[in-house]
Amino acid sequence: MGTLYLVRHGQASFGADNYDQLSPLGERQCERLGEYLRARGQRFEAVITGTLQRHLQSHDALARGLGQQHEALRLPDLNEYDSHAVLATVHEGPLGKPTTPEAYKHHFRLLRQGLAGWMAGALQPEGMPTYADFAAGVQAALDHVRSQHRGDVLIVSSGGPISTAVGLVLGTPAETGIDLNMQLRNSAICEFSFNPKRHVLVAYNALPHLDSPEHRDWVTYT
């Protein structure tokens, strides 16, 4: 039986022109995770990432902390949905950068609405796959792990694919993934045991590497 560690990328650049870059804190979060895993003597049989810049930067920072270099398999199926395209299905014109608590709430209310419509097949964001195809891509990544590996595997991805993976393993309705996604913290670990037949969820949204007073203000969600 193997163990799959699904890790969300470190803090990116929410509200910036280019979200797909780790912030300095995001770099530290992932490097700290690597240090934590190194202290446990963790080694990985395989590493898989999405192809977004924040995935690659998160893996690089984690590898520095871990003191190990890996030739990662890069799978586009592990990339995040396009939140701008999702928002455009429920809001005409671009949303301004949220700068107040109410603006943040409004942003995420609209995002939830757009995601629910996409998942139900009622809305189709431009340039994105259907939700059924998005979920099938995540399932294909899980199937790859089960069929190709027996040891410990690391996946670095984003909230959407990770929450979808959790929902697929648990057999929850697609919309449950919205709540799972909104709770995922940066650099958090979702742990699964797996064998050739199935995955089993062991831990969700864990931050053992930040569980200390000096790292309390390193916990972020976007």
UniProtKB/TrEMBL annotation:
Which SUPFAM superfamilies does its entry note? Phosphoglycerate mutase-like
The record's annotation in Pfam families points to: His_Phos_1
Report which superkingdom the organism of origin falls in.
Bacteria
- E.C. no: 3.1.3.-
Keywords of the record, alphabetical order, are:
Hydrolase
**Sorted alphabetically, which CDD domains does this protein's record hold?**
HP_PGM_like (cd07067)
Q: What is this protein called?
A: Histidine phosphatase family protein
Question: Which species is the source of this protein?
Answer: Pseudaquabacterium inlustre
Kindly list the organism's lineage.
Bacteria, Pseudomonadati, Pseudomonadota, Betaproteobacteria, Burkholderiales
